Amino acid sequence: MAANPRKFLITTLEGGGAVGPALTVARKLVEAGHDVRVMSDEVNRPEAEATGARFIHWNRAPNRSDRSKETDLHRDWEATDMMDGFARVIGGIVVGPSLRYALDTIDELDREPADLVVSAELLMGVVAACEKRGQKVALLPSNSMIITIKAALEKAAASSAPPASEQEARMAGIAAAMGDALKRAVPPLNATREALGLEPIGQLLDQFRAVSMILAAVSPSFDMAPGDQPGLTYIGPQLDDPAWAAPWRSPFPAGDTRPLVLVGFSTTFQDHAGVLQAVIDALSSLPVRALVTLGPSIEPGELNAADNVQVVSSAPHNQIMPVASLVITHGGYGTLTRALSHKLPILAMPQGRDQYGNAERLVAHGAGLALPPGADAATIAGAVEQLLGDPSYAAAADKLGAAVEREMRESKVVEVLEGLAG
Q1: pLDDT tens for each residue of 136-146
Q2: Same domain, residue pair 303 and 156
Q3: What's the confidence (pLDDT) of residue 322?
Q4: How far is CA 154 from CA 144, 149, 158, 165, 305, in A?
Q5: Domain range enclosing 94
Q6: Can you give the pTM of this predicted structure?
Q7: Is 147 left (phi over 0), alpha (psi -120 to 50) or beta?
Q8: Which DSSP category does 306 fall into?
Q9: 317 and 182 in one domain?
Q10: What residues contact residue 399 under an 8 Å CB cut-off, 6+ apart?
């Protein structure tokens, strides 16, 4: 137990991958003897309280009571392309409601102070509130996107040399488009800062100057990252199973030796029922067993299962992956790195957000394949056969997975947070 218990306020939002790492960190802090509060959407109350933390819901800020598409803040499944989806996140979460997040944070800290606030990186309003109060705050990104954006923008600003490769040219184009979206976000964030009595900033990422540390809950091995940098430290993936995951009992005979394929896509709505049906149709044609976990945004009755494919709302992935041979996923950071920690090859079918970059890294490591979400059943079946039939994918996943598992097991997240809290 902690010799010097501290008070932590963890702020996050119902946005799929942001919640799990925050709650895993909350559990670890509670188990270390610290006083932990989690401030998030009401829908997260049961899983937050299951960590032993106290829970507070957002008041002025958006406060989702469920995970339905009707309550989604930015509806990124309606985006016309990746950059439109990025702009929707910036407007719908990062800056649009930033004053409301800021005021809720100030109210909570007035009610009960904290030694350290630990926030999802999207909640710029929380960071501005902490700046206003002189409150120590750290960010907990649960994927690589903010690190990639920051690095790409810094590289673009520092060099006028033409791109040396096709990949560099593509990244430069993405950085330029992201830079434009971030520039458009500065005025609304400055309006929030003005309302709080803070000076305006020139760039959106200038708000990070108020942050003590960015704690990246990601794998530097998977990201091929150079390691810790000034203001940034890697704490490894934080991947407890969600409290809402139901127990699972295999419907397949005990002697069934067919490979088990685990399918898990987004826990938030991404209009992905059609993709899942194509995956089910592909697996139904192969000599495999399969479990499809849907999460809260799609009902099992919306899909047509098959004799060798079980479809369930949820199941504990950490308990199933040790007996699986392959994972098919949208490429969200949590599912992907969880699969790698169990040394499993992966078929990624990215649909947006950070998923395209994750799929590219997966393929670069040789630990899986990537297909577009519009791939038909025959194409998906071919990819599954390739991944199960070519041992090089399993070997690459085993090598990379050993590094990811070690990063998770040796994570010093509690010690780092204790040091920041003082």
Answers
A1: 999 999 887 67
A2: no
A3: 92
A4: 15, 8, 6, 18, 48
A5: 7-217
A6: 0.88
A7: alpha
A8: B
A9: no
A10: none
